[in-house]
Structures are given as C-alpha cells and as structure tokens.
Specification:
The chain has about 300 residues and is mostly helical. The protein has a single domain, classed as Glycosyltransferase (Alpha/alpha barrel), CATH 1.50.10. It is built from 14 helices and 4 strands. The strands form 2 sheets. Strands 1-2 form a two-stranded antiparallel sheet. A two-stranded antiparallel ribbon has the order 3-4. The longest helix is centred in the N-terminal third of the chain and has 14 residues. It starts with 5 loop residues before the first helix and ends with a helix. Bound molecules: geranylgeranyl diphosphate (GRG) and zinc ion. The site of geranylgeranyl diphosphate has 16 residues, from α7 and α9.
C-alpha cells in the first residue's frame, strides 16, 4: 500500500500560493480564513503546527474581526459571516488563544443570527441552512456560551430537516447530503441530542456511500471524492457505526489521491491537489487511526487535545 507522504504535505501546506515556507502564504488572499483553518488543522494533525508563528496567525485573524458587530470576515475588510466566525474561533482554539476574544461580543453576534423557528441565518442577508446551525452551535460551544441561544429550538429545527432515509438536508424537505448530515449530526452531538437520530437507518445510508473504488460519495449515484472521507466518516463515528465501512479500501483510496512528488491531496485520483482535500484526506486517515497522526474530534473538527477542554 502507498504510505502517507506527511513531510511533503507539510511542505505543500506551508508553500501554498507563494511557494515560500512562511505562514503568510497560508493566510493570503483567496484561501482566506477557512483555508487557514483547514491548513493549520492539517499541520496540527501532522504534528507540525510549530512550523508557524502563532503571533503572526493570531494578529492576522484579529484583523478580520468586526469590532462593531462581533463577527469575523473571510479576510481583512470582508463582511462578517458565521462560516468565517467559526473558522476564526477554531484557529484561536488551535493555538489555545481564545482569550484574545471578547467571547461575550462574539456570542451575541452568533446568537443574533438565530431565527424564530430556531434556524440560523449565515449573515445579515438571511440565507438559512443547517450548515449555519452547525457553525453557530460549534462556535458557541467552544466559547462556552451555548446559553446565549435557544438550544431546544435550534435542535428542533435540525430535527425538522431529517428525511425518511435517515439523512438530513439544508432546510426542511431538502435532499439528504453527506455534508449536511455532518452539520446536523455534529450539532446534535455537541448539544447532547443524538437520541433524535435513528442510528441504524442513518448508518445504513452513510455506509452505502462507499463506492467500488473504496472512496465515499456524498449522495447516491455520485462519484467518490476524498472530502466525503471527512463528512461521512465523522458522522459514522458520532453515531457509532464506523465499523460498517471498509477502512482498508478507503485508506487506499485516500493515499492514491496524494501528489507523491509535490505533496497535497486531491479530491479524486490524478486530479489537482488543494488545501481543503489535503485536510479531508489527512483528517479522514486520522479518524481511521492511521499511525502517527493526532486524533481529531469528529464533532468539533479540531484535534482532540484541543477539543478536550
Ligand atoms: C468545521 C468541518 C467544518 C465545517 C464547517 C461549511 C461547513 C461547516 C460545512 C459544509 C458541509 C457541506 C455542505 C459539505 C459538502 C460540500 C460539497 C462537496 C458539495 C458538493 O456536493 P454535490 O453533491 O457534488 O453537489 P459532488 O462533488 O459530491 O458530486
Ligand atoms: Zn470534494
């Protein structure tokens, strides 16, 4: 079997864009704060977070902060959004520096996006999606501020997005999709509400995502893609059904998507690598206890030593 090219992946992450070994490259322009979170978390799983200067990262993250409202933008000068606010909080958690935040203010921003029916909008423009329920709940839990929202309503909204096949969609009636299932199961796990899930029914739907080539897809009839090694596996672990897939075959699929020369992992074999799929591949292997990797928490998407507090 191929091996995980850890050193090459570290080099790839550090050299993104500028092809130079500094943190700036990782944080620049198009990758923005989500990319920084995925890249830094991957470095941490590979035991190489020490290759970046925490002060540099933290000061850049705080430049994305909007003091007026308490939210974070995706880059300096960009509008605030829940997706970016979660990434910012996760990055600060990675460095154990949540203390630089006014947690009260950030949690008021997040809580302000909860709607009457318990759902969450992503930002002031109002789009509603279970992705944002996850972002809000994960973020507030890291900040120890879940009491700022109506958790019962938030849970009921997520449950209203459950389908007859056991999966979840982005809004009530929306098609089941592995990405949305991660968000809903993650949010239910964090709030201690997994009793709303039919584990066998959902586990069956999730393990059927494994394709002939060993990779996982996101819904029926779609191609396998390395990112579902994260969305599907983390969900299966949270509902205690991960033994229903063939780990060896999935490991082979992920390792076969590596760029063995220049590092990085792609979504499918022989495609171009990117930082997101590098995270999904490495994190997927970590969930399967591949040797030498830090273990990652399936609900918080942070290394367990970070999520442990
Ligand atoms: C901190 C882990 C973490 C997540 C933050 C952004 C977010 C919360 C969750 C996103 C969940 C999601 C919806 C993921 C799916 C992304 C994806 C690959 C969509 C494309 O799906 P399809 O079915 O296309 O249109 P494919 O490529 O599968 O054929
Ligand atoms: Zn993908």
């Amino acid at each position: 079997m191929d091996e995980l090219e850890s050193d090459k992946h570290v080099k790839y992450i550090l050299s993104i864009e500028k092809k130079k070994d500094d943190v700036e490259a990782l944080l620049m322009e198009h990758l923005r704060i989500n990319g920084a979170y995925w890249g830094l978390t991957t470095l941490d799983i590979l035991h190489k977070i020490s290759a970046v200067d925490p002060e540099e990262v933290i000061s850049w993250v705080m430049k994305c902060y909007h003091e007026d409202c308490g939210g974070f933008g995706g880059n300096i000068g960009h509008d605030p959004h829940l997706l970016y606010t979660l990434s910012a909080v996760q990055i600060l958690a990675l460095f154990d520096r949540i203390d630089v935040l006014d947690a009260e203010k950030v949690s008021i921003y997040v809580a302000g996006l909860q709607n009457e029916d318990g759902s969450f909008s992503g930002d002031m423009w109002g789009e509603i999606d279970t992705r944002f329920s996850y972002c809000a709940i994960c973020c507030l839990s890291i900040l120890h501020c879940l009491n700022k929202i109506n958790v019962e309503k938030a849970v009921n909204y997520i449950v209203s997005c459950k389908n007859l096949d056991g999966g979840f969609g982005c809004t009530p009636g929306g098609e089941s999709h592995a990405g949305q299932i991660f968000c809903c199961i993650g949010a239910l796990a964090i709030t201690g509400s997994l009793h709303h899930v039919d584990r066998d029914l959902l586990g069956w739907w999730l393990c059927e995502r494994q394709c002939k080539n060993g990779g996982l897809n996101g819904r029926p009839e779609k191609d396998a893609d390395v990112c579902y090694s994260w969305w599907v596996l983390s969900s299966l672990i949270m509902i205690d059904r991960v033994h229903w897939i063939d780990k060896d075959k999935l490991t082979r699929f992920i390792l076969n998507c590596q760029d063995k020369e220049n590092g990085g992992i792609s979504d499918k074999p022989n495609y171009a690598v990117d930082v997101f799929h590098t995270y999904f591949g490495v994190a997927g292997l970590s969930l399967m206890e591949y040797p030498g990797l830090k273990s990652i928490d399936p609900a918080y998407a942070l290394p367990v030593d970070v999520a442990d507090w």
